[in-house]
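Entry: CCA tRNA nucleotidyltransferase
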Amino acid sequence: MTDMGEAAGRLEALVAEAPTAGLAAAFAAAGHELALVGGPVRDAFLDRSVTDLDFASSASPDEILAVVAPLADATWDVGREFGTIAARIGGADVEITTYRADQYDGVSRKPSVAFGERLEDDLVRRDFTVNAMALLLTPRRDGTEERLPQLVDVGGGLEHLLAGVLDTPQAPERSFGDDPLRMMRAARFAAQLGFSVAPRVVEAMEAQAERILGISAERVRDELSKLLRTASPVPGIRLLTETGILDRVLPEVPALRLEADEHAHHKDVFEHSLTVLQQGIDLEASRHPGAELDLVSRLAGLLHDIGKPATRRIEGRVVTFHQHDVVGARMAAKRLKALRFDNDTVKAVSRLVELHLRFYGYGDQGWSDSAVRRYVRDAGPLLERLHILTRSDVTTRNRRKAERLDFAYDDLERRIAELAEQEELDAVRPDLDGERIMAILGIAPGREVGEAYRMLLEARLEHGPLGEERAEAMLREWWAARSA
């Protein structure tokens, strides 16, 4: 949280910059109110970069369009029925929305829009007080004399920013009743801003957790993705778990809170998974600074052990989870499909869950070159993500064990790099393609071509590059033995 003087300076600079200054002048000349609202105001106080410019106005959508069109390079409707007009002005994208007073029907979760008359009424219907502050840029329509720009704060948002608390402008029961997705948004903002959540908000989330089931899978997916893309999503995951909301949208994760057996011992799988998630995020940032945040890696870190409850067995004084990687891969695919994730994400996350144990054993006995090749082949384009997941999966408090595993994976990555340089390992293929196989053997396309291709691929993985002559001899020998 920046000090008030610095925040005031940032807000003044924001008001003076294009396109804010030009918009304020144009709306004032047309007799309409215009206010900068929500995120930009909040982020100025938090000393965060302002990327999106959102405005609210007393003007109707048609009136907004009439004012904006002469200033804009382009305009488009992003939700005219909800009162929102978007424009690109001087290279910046802005959204301007008519003052609103949404009313939800309590069933469909879709708002019945009623355009409002006052900025204050618009702000009080917003999700959280820290997002319900505005900077009024134009004179009031009622002629009230005020120094501009003026901070308008209807719910104590500035006070809550100073205290680091997330609260709602109106009773949280009413706010979440209007739109239950705000409960997931509370978890996201708590994680993103590093804020605590007001006790009354937590209580309302617990009481209304069941209502999240009325939200479409797509909206839930998008909010969950936004949470996982924050720098530290773990506090948000905890909040959703503790309030029972995650039981409704991603029940496989709360199910990791396995009861401890009085005789057998095992690691706390829920806490372990949260640690893996955060370690993966930190490792991703250190290995690829400045890269786009990777949702696939974060989903894989969170879900990598979800097969453990279904495979839990007690063997003497030890709890085992045999095949939890395979079971977990199927569970991850099923849940992500239900949440309407795209097919590429579903396949990638499921495959990473399936492969996350493949490394273990390398540190004890080492691998042959052929085993390293298979590891790379099986990971395919997911290899770097598998590196991050496997390294993040080490959460032991035994320092010597952690150092041994880290050293072993360093060695594996070194060998992969060496083999890749020698053999272009990332594109491992047999030395003969399907056309050459058919020509050598004098056969037509069919099952035998596939069998021959797989045989040559295994030979390539086992022995490295064979060369066409040696590969052809091996193919003829295999075909003769097969025919016999």
